[in-house]
Amino acid sequence: MSQRRNDLLRRSFNMYLRFLAGSLLIIFISITSIGGCGGGGSGGSGENLYSVARLWNEALLNAIRIDYPAPTVHSRNLFHTSVGMWDAWAAYDGTAVGYLVDESAASEDIEAARAEAISFAAYRILSARYVLSPGAEMSLASFDALMNELGYDKSFTSTSGDSPAALGNRIAQAVLAYGLTDGANEANGYVDDTGYMPVNEPMIVSIPGTEMVDPNRWQPLDITGRLTQNGLERGDVQVFLGSQWGDVTPFALAPRDNPDVDVYLDPGFPPLLGGIGDAEFKEAIVRVIRFSSQVDPTDGVLIDISPGARGNNTLGTNDGSGYPLNPFTGEPYEPNIVKRGDFGRVIAEFWADGPASETPPGHWNTLANYVSDHPLLEKRIGGVGPVVDDQEWDVKLYLAINGAVHDAAVSAWDAKRKYDYVRPISAIRYMGGLGQSSDPMGPSYDPDGLPLVPGLIEVITEETTAVGERHRLLLGFEGFIAIYAWKGQPDDPETEFSGSGWILAINWLTYQRSNFVTPPFAGYTSGHSTFSRAAAEVLAALTGDVYFPGGLGVFVAPKDDFLEFEIGPTEEVVLHWATYYDASDEAGISRLWGGIHVDADDFEGRINGSIIGKDAYELAMKYFDGTIQ
């Protein structure tokens, strides 16, 4: 029974995520009809597969996938759209309280009225927010098509009267007006108007090494032909994305006493090279290099990635050793043995939110939708009370989870701005260019250099470059620092993978596409870790269970048909998570496999994300039960 149940969960999750990558037309074809009537339009009646809130969430996720991948902006769009849908739903409830618009409305057909009000609110918000997107033509057409499929007259723009359409338009008007005053600087394209300037000149990635005024501070990258994660062109030199985001109005974060000095949920200083935490800094950099050395599926190392062997970490650590039993089946989790190199590559890409990505905040919406669709889930708010219908579940889910990821962006980017912390690519190239810091009497010594680790970080010598020796391909670079790491994107990603080998430290690249390399903002704290733990806390609280339905969440990466910038995995890899926390922890550590973050970025992000998610859910509940003051 356990194996059959696990196989069913695995297939259903894989099919679900593949479905999400498709067009909204797939959803449209699945709709039989959704009721609607009132001043703005009319629709038929009958059964439908999804609530209109879910349909608009999917429309938004598709719009994100073809827009610039700015997690700050998209977390805000997810939240504001969720506010619009919630306020429309709450207007027809005698207990619930709206977030921006707290109206009371009546209808002989409340279900149909809610669907219509939600649709007009979402349509107006999304049409305004994505009109300047590079994917605007497709996104706006999809919003129009969804309105048409639902049977509503999108040309109805009145905000006057008691009709559901007018109510939806009023709510959208309030949300959009609020967005012009919340500190995001939407009117000017979300650019930072606070005067941030990086202290370090850009690193030209195609040239070995780097120079830094302050090796603990963020350095923009100059990447020839730079593309965003979803393949859109940008200027070659990075600009700090969202450096003003700490000033955006949050959902549930407690106010800062002094916004000019204080940081939301201040994590304190990270380890500093040559300062407090120097040894920890160097250990963290060695760990990133070690991960880079392990993305080779030919190294013969096999690992068990089942929930029986990994996960169940203490918050802010990777100390877990798994779970003895699946609480749903009452049986042990079956071993899941994979090549370590395939596992590292798969999680680096799965959680990186690469091409066709909905960015980390949206990614957790897809996971939340998977949970909502699961046949074993009972939709009871907080895991207690009566089973609610899909519409109620979805609007409450989206308000809570998107309030959490919105606050995660505000908090994480607040810390990114204050601490302006270096990324691994700058640190590794800079330190490797200085030399080694382990042996003061040895060659190429510098106290700020890379620590020596036999088989991983070494000084190149005449002996090691001799014929048949390990550094033979680095002949002529005696005295330089070599590291055993990923060799970079292969010439033909469709048929080749690079594996790991000895390279110059000054040439090191992240396990990312060669025209992306690293996100355009500082590292500390990790947005992925903060977003993920915040969302995981909401899912655990809303469902009343930390475990995925059935005790197992699954994603299947098919053999040779998943990775984007090199072929792979060499064998099918099935990711398994027992709890939402396990999934969020994997999202965090995946950024070390990808060379994007160090431990401090990840762990402090997880810790803050936990606080953010719990607070967001607690506040959302007060809107749900009408106790908000």
What does this entry show, briefly?
The protein has 15 helices and 9 strands. The chain is mainly α.
Give an overview of the whole structure:
With 629 residues, the protein is mostly helical. 40% of the residues lie in helices and 5% in strands. The protein has 15 helices and nine strands. A three-stranded antiparallel beta sheet has the order 5-6-7. It has a two-stranded parallel ribbon with strand order 1-2. The protein has a two-stranded antiparallel sheet with strand order 3-4. Helix 9 packs across helix 14 (580-593) and helix 14 runs antiparallel to helix 15 (599-625). The chain is globular, with a radius of gyration of 25 Å. The chain starts with a helix and ends with a helix.
Secondary-structure blueprint:
Layout lengths: L1 H19 L3 H7 L21 H14 L5 H20 L19 H20 L6 H15 L13 H16 L23 E2 L16 E2 L55 H16 L8 E3 L32 E3 H11 L8 H15 L16 H30 L4 H11 L22 E3 L21 E6 L13 E5 L22 H17 L9 E5 L15 E5 L2 H14 L5 H27 L4
Parallel strand pairs: 1-2
Antiparallel strand pairs: 3-4, 5-6, 6-7, 8-9
Helix pairs in contact: 3-4, 3-5, 3-6, 3-10, 3-11, 4-5, 4-7, 4-10, 4-11, 5-6, 5-7, 9-14, 10-11, 10-13, 11-13, 11-15, 13-14, 13-15, 14-15
